[in-house]
Amino acid sequence: MEKIEVLRWKVKMMENFIEKGSGDYTEWDIYRFKKEMFEFKYLNPNNTEIDSLISMMESLETAYDKKQSDKMNHKLNLLTVWSTIFLPLSFYTGMWGMNFDDVPLLTGDDGFWIFVALSVVTIVVMFSYFKRNKWF
To answer: Which of 57, 75, 118, 119 is deepest in the core (most CB within 10 A)?
Structure first.
């Protein structure tokens, strides 16, 4: 019965890790815990408590996967927002960086400052739009 106590303790530790984010567990640790439980069940087929622990461990694994997926989605969302903000700036730089004189505002005295103002206004407008719509 000591083995079932160890397994129960491991499930409790894993539950605390997933709920509070404290601990150093990985997907590999979850796999090993489940494997250990299945081995115990194979050696003790009449033990009914292990079934509930296995079920609990599977639900914890699902919760862990969901938490990891949410983290990845948040990071991808931020990457998308920043890429969208800087895409027009790349367009402006490409347009004003061409090597011929017919580009508007290129030869004028105020061309550089208009380019800077347009870039800053674009960043501010897009940043405020994404902030207002709670994209990040």
So the answer is: 57
